[in-house]
Design a protein that fits this description.
alpha/beta; 13 helices; 18 strands; 34% helix; globular; binds flavin-adenine dinucleotide
């Protein structure tokens, strides 16, 4: 990349106009830093997501951006909690701590938060490449239609989601080092659906796939499936649709044509293998690998995004390397996220925002045993990734040192 005379100088470039970006931008703008967000899509942009915000994420939005306007919500506008289902057909509904949470319409909630951050946003502008020059970063972007833009930024934040082009530009081989999953969802008109629409429904069922869910949205029912990349989405979805009909009495019309799917980097949170960047390039949100239990990623995107912004502010104030500061500050979010996958924490410390151990103990003993057996059979589905030993080691590490080791991060 050559440095042209039309290069624009800014304090921070953020790539991606999502929730992590909004949180980072809010911190930077409040500190008076010139911040430009690049978003490849036209805004407001669509984002595949169930939109169930955790109570912690909800608090963050309220505290930082204020009350949510009506257009940022889907119907039903709130969610009471999560219901787990198992092959033994014992349902486990669990309410979120602290009451219901909003059901976000990501197209409008993300745009609202981005606007509230006060940052300048260039939409239909794709990040193409960067060069990390020690004291600054040269960024190359392209406006839809072909115009090239160049920036000289003191810092860059990659808030560009699981497939993160920013991450790939500094660690080109990283995507080959983790397993990739595909998640896809279809929308159905409802004939009859006995699943309680106040809850997000999740199946621990090895024959249905690695990640199977359903919930109501805007008068329709979403049926979603997740599996290791390479399998057939339509067959998988049909199998789940049949299962819901046969076992739960869910009668749906054929799916609408507008189904959707994407690749997910599920795994790094379990193993404390996050990517936080290099030099003055910070990675944040789901791009780092942050993903909470049952795929909840908005709260950790918001919190990690804010921390990336705070790290830059501190780096400038203290004149210290931003990566050192970011990696210290981000450990709170690493604890919060990786604890959710830590068997010792799950058994003894309630790391989730609904009380799984209490719901399990409330079941009659015979049902509890059936559920435990079904959970075990479900976990065996993940055996091929050989995560068991790593999760056990990370849990012991957390017990012995009180933290997850940062030498496993990139
Ligand atoms: C099917 C599904 C259901 C989910 N349900 C939930 C849920 O109910 N609750 C929950 O909390 N989480 C859920 N998640 C996860 C959640 O959506 C993500 O964890 C969260 O959106 C991550 O936010 P982010 O800010 O890191 O990035 P993202 O939301 O992924 O946004 C990244 C942005 O970067 C932009 N971008 C990418 N490349 C470029 C480029 N080259 N140049 C410029 N811009 C670029 C993208 O267009 C996008 O706007 C779900 C995910 C999926 C796939």
């Amino acid at each position: 990349m050559h440095e042209s005379s039309s290069i624009r100088k800014v304090d921070v470039i953020i790539v991606g106009a999502s929730l992590a970006a909004a949180a980072a931008a809010k911190r930077l703008i409040d500190a008076g830093l010139e911040t430009v967000i690049l978003e490849k899509q036209a805004l407001p942009r669509h984002k595949i997501c169930s939109g169930i915000l955790s109570p912690r994420g909800y608090r963050f939005l309220l505290e930082n951006f204020g009350p949510l306007p009506a257009e940022t919500l889907h119907a039903p506008t709130s969610c009471r909690g999560v219901t787990f289902h198992f092959p033994c057909m014992v349902p486990m509904p669990m309410d979120f701590f602290g009451g219901t949470t909003p059901h976000l319409h990501r197209k409008y909630s993300d745009h609202w938060a981005i606007q509230r951050s006060g940052a300048e946003v260039l939409d239909q502008t794709s990040f193409i490449s960067l060069r990390n020059n020690g004291g600054h970063v040269l960024v190359n972007a392209r406006k839809k239609g072909g115009a090239e833009l160049q920036f000289k930024a003191r810092y860059v934040i990659g808030a560009d989601g699981p497939s993160s082009p920013v991450l790939r530009s500094i660690y080109p081989n990283y995507p080959k080092q983790i397993p990739w999953f595909f998640v896809g969802q279809k929308f159905h008109e409802i004939i009859d659906c006995p699943l309680d629409e106040d809850y997000f429904h999740f199946w621990f069922h090895p024959e249905l796939g690695h990640y199977t869910w359903s919930h109501a949205r805007d008068g329709k029912q979403i049926v979603g499936v997740g599996f290791k990349k390479g399998d057939n989405f339509h067959k998988r979805h049909q199998h789940v649709e049949n299962y819901l009909r046969d076992k739960h009495g869910v009668h749906l019309k054929p799916a609408d044509p507008d189904h959707e799917g994407c690749a997910e980097n599920f795994g790094p949170s379990l193993l404390n293998r996050y990517v936080f960047g290099q030099g003055n390039v910070l990675i944040t949100g789901q791009a780092t690998g942050f993903l909470n239990m049952i795929g909840e990623g908005m709260s950790c995107a918001l919190h990690s995004g804010a921390i990336s912004g705070e790290a830059i502010i501190d780096a400038l104030r203290l004149n210290q390397p931003v990566q050192d500061i970011y990696r210290k500050m981000i450990s709170s979010e690493v604890h919060n996220t990786t604890d959710q996958w830590n068997p010792l924490k799950i058994a003894f410390a309630r790391p989730h925002e609904a009380d799984f151990p209490a719901a399990l103990m409330a079941l009659p003993r015979s049902e509890r045993i059936k559920v435990m057996k079904d959970i075990w059979r479900f976990l065996v589905l993940y055996k091929e990734f050989k995560w068991g030993r790593e999760i056990a080691s990370r849990s012991m590490e957390r017990l012995l040192y009180g933290k997850y080791q940062d030498h496993r991060w990139l």
